[in-house]
Input
Amino acid sequence: MSDSPPPHIPTLLKPLELIFNQAIKEYGPNHKAVAWKNEERQQRRFQIFAGLLSGVSGKDDYIINDLGCGYGAMFEAFKDLSELRKGRYIGYDISDEMVRTAKKRIPDSRTTFIQSYYATEEADFSFVSGTYNMKLHQRDHIWQDYVKESLKQLWSKTRAGLGFNMLSIQNPDREKTLFYADPEYFYAFCRTNLSEKIRLVNRLEPEEFVILIMR
Output
């Protein structure tokens, strides 16, 4: 996955698009529509990501990519940050219903919402919150390859830093439709293929982990 995804990626993700189109209609704009366990955990993850922004001070006009933006919850968590006061937020989602909902809910001039499987615009920072968790009935090795290609493509659109989370193989309560990753494996992958400036954050263990990467 470089500037555009391989031909099989839209087919791979099509079942998820249909599920999330239905979920936003059924649950409305809340954590259930995007399959988050609860709102508190959702916000804790956003706080960890925000730390990547505050670690690079001196600007108030950062551009942010949010891959798998849903109904725009990350922007709502970030909108009052000084680093985004004059900045831009670009949210991408495979679900046209999610994008439509986000645009309607958040008429902020700093936001752009795009239906896409991948980042199309360059940004200072890129984030992926929960997007890699649901694989449905896809085989683990196929999903893992998709995640790696997605991260490489997103990194190519990222100037300063990237943060993403994944469910951990140490999670005691697993579901068949979710993907559970080895944090050490993805740490090594990112260190080898993206940047040596990398940090593994386990503040959400044992259920999930966060990886933060800088240029």
The two ends are 20 Å apart (CA to CA). The mean pLDDT is 92. The chain has one domain: 8-138+145-175+185-192+205-214.
